[in-house]
Structure formats: C-alpha cells, structure tokens
Write a structure and sequence with these properties.
elongated, four-stranded antiparallel β-sheet, about 0% helix, mainly beta
Amino acid sequence: MYAIMETGGKQFKVEADMKIKIQKIDKEAGEEVKFDKIITVVKDDSSVNIGSPYVEGASVEAKVVGHGKGKKVVAFHYKPKKRIRIKRGHRQPYTMISISGINA
C-alpha cells in the first residue's frame, strides 16, 4: 500500500516504514505528525482511490526524526568589465520524518 501526499507545496510517494525529507515543519524530534492532504491511495489489491482534490478520510501518520540543512547551493553573479562579483550561498532547512502508517 502506498499513498501520494502533499506537504510544503510538493508531492511525495510514501509507504510504511519509509523515511523522507520534507520542507521544515514546527515540530520537535519524536513528535507525531498527521498529514491530511492525501491525493491518491493505492491498496495492495490494486484498488485506487483518487481524490478531487484530496481523498476524504485518508491520512498519513508519521514521526519526526530530526531537522537539518540540505547541501549548499551557490549562486554566483558577475558583470564583465565592471568589477561586480556577487557570491551567495543557501542551505534549505528540512525535516526528516519516518512514516508510521497510512489510513485509507
């Protein structure tokens, strides 16, 4: 059984006992989280529930494992012959979650 859920403006295909990185949420490590924006649920017997836009009554339960920052992305801008060079770096914060179960 797997589900496609939406969080942080992105969609993720999740299964039980899976760990994923999502956009940072305000929860402490060890806390339980429930996601209600479920787009699709596919069960083991090949039955598919597709929401419009979300499946009613479906949810994904997860546990927050921890927080961190992604790899550095470097943005470098320059203008030739003008001595203008701008180098910026950015590290996107994320939350690592472990999927506990899918309720369809």
